Amino acid sequence: MRRTIKRQRSIGSIDIGKIEFDTDCRHEIIPILEGLQYIHNHPNLLKKVLKLIEQDIVGDKSKERGASGMEYWEILVLACIRQGCNLTYDALQDLANYHTVLRQMLGLGDLDIKRYTRSTLQGNIAKISDETLEKISQLVIDEGHKLCPKAIERVRADSYVAKTNIHYPTDANLILDGIGTMLTLVCQLVILFPILVGYQRGHWWGIAKKVYRTIQRLAAKEKGKEKEKGSCTEKMKGLYRELIEIALRLTTRCEETIEGAKKHVKREGVKVDAVRVNSLISELEQCIKLTREACNLALRRVILEEQILNDEKIFSLFETHTELINRGKSPYPIEFGHRVLIVQDRVGFILKAQIMDHTTDDKVAVPAMTQLQQYYGGKIKAVSFDKGFYSHDNLVELKKIIALVCLPKKGKLSEEDKQRESAPEFGKVRKWHSGIESAIHALGTGNGLALCRDKKYKGYRRYLALGVLARNVQVLGSLLLKKAKRHQIRQVKAAA
User: Fold this and answer.
1) What is the pTM of this model?
2) pLDDT of 333-363, one tens digit each?
3) What is the span of the domain harbouring residue 179?
4) What's the mean pLDDT when you consider all of the chain?
């Protein structure tokens, strides 16, 4: 059965609420642990947070049955540490097993022999949904605003690209990815059904890789010339035809294998792991579909020399949700991932992190601020954006809900715009706006949100939400540490 938190203290353990941290240490783990301790010390907040985690972990099943598993408190702590310190699961495992103060926060003492495995950590953290993480993050922000009530009066917003973990896509390497994945999956399927015809995996992979390497070498030689001509040579077209033919022959062969496997499963008396077989068949069918699509795009672009729109292209066979984003900024003018809108208040809490699927900056400003203003009961008095968010309609709509809108205009300014942007209040908020770049950099480097390490779109959303939660817990901890230091200074002055 699952437990929310360890109530019975073991020998050598310390009450979580009384753990002392090294406040002189500048490592990010200290404010994170401080923020988590604050959550633990407030029973109502702790109950709400653990109840949200329980809904994801247990769902509609009975929490009184089954293996004990990790406690909800342990999952929360280790999830925040993972993203707060930008750790891999291997690094998190080492920290959870050997970091003394962290183990104390988990309710473990020096004599406890409990150890965490990598698969246990990954499996439990991955069960928390992005919706749950966003709700917990909002609870943390609400607690922080109790400490700093004026924090919400001024907010700033900007967007950046959170990349997906893919290699640079070309027609050739996408087809090769499809060939390699199909061979891996179909060989696993054949192992389960010895009656099916086997595959010469090395042979298929060898001939495909040989053609791919030839394409690479030819592309490197003719890079300059082909850019000038704007078309591919006949030799390049011939190589692509050969690679496409290999891929299509393999897809046909895999489809035959799938039909054979389905017929074999239906026979009476056959003992096989049906769940495993269905999973492999589903993955293989999806891979076949994507590989055929990649072959079709290569045929149109390279051989037929068509211009293909970005919306029609595939950028990865594994992360199919990936978008191509041309920001035109150095050093990476083209990036692969999703635009993410970040809204920050004046003390550093990330109020909103919204994935902008196929949407530009000017389309999200009004809906995002309307939602935040409604949630906070009209407490937002000033908001700042950069020029990318500007449109006349945005300026008009934002002025209806927020008193001071710092939204610089693109291009030439009219007399009215010059007067608006030269106002002292506008200039003060605009100077303050540049701090959002620091917040985005902190999320990218400190919380790992520059590149998503989790898989699929669901993992991408969870990874982003978890990074924002970890940042907000860290900001809460930093506020508490500053408050404690101010109190300590006052005591020293009073004693003097």
Assistant:
1) 0.91
2) 899 999 999 999 999 999 999 999 888 899 9
3) 171-312
4) 90
Identify which of 412, 332, 348, 341 has the alpha carbon closest to the alpha carbon of residue 371. Answer: 341
Q: In this structure, are residues 247 and 253 in contact, taking their beta carbons and an 8 Å threshold?
A: no
Domain co-membership, 284 together with 382:
no
pLDDT in tens, 369-402: 999 999 999 999 999 999 999 999 999 999 999 9
Strand 350-356 vs strand 382-384: parallel, antiparallel, or unpaired?
A: unpaired
DSSP run (H or E) holding 342: strand 334-345
How far apart CA 197 and CA 200 sit, in angstroms, is 10
For residue 172, what are its two tokens? Answer: 């050739």
Is there a single domain that holds both residue 34 and residue 79?
yes
Cβ 485 vs Cβ 466: under 8 Å: no
Is 179 domain-assigned? Answer: yes
pLDDT digits (tens, 9 = 90+) for 302-336: 999 899 888 889 999 999 999 999 887 777 789 99
Q: Are residues 234 and 359 in the same domain?
A: no
- Which amino acid, residue 417? D
Q: How far is CA 108 from CA 63, 86, 314, 387, in A?
A: 23, 23, 48, 51
For 354, left (φ over 0), alpha (ψ -120 to 50), or beta?
Answer: beta
Q: How many independent structural domains does the chain possess? A: 3
Structure tokens that stand for 469 in this block: 């939660």
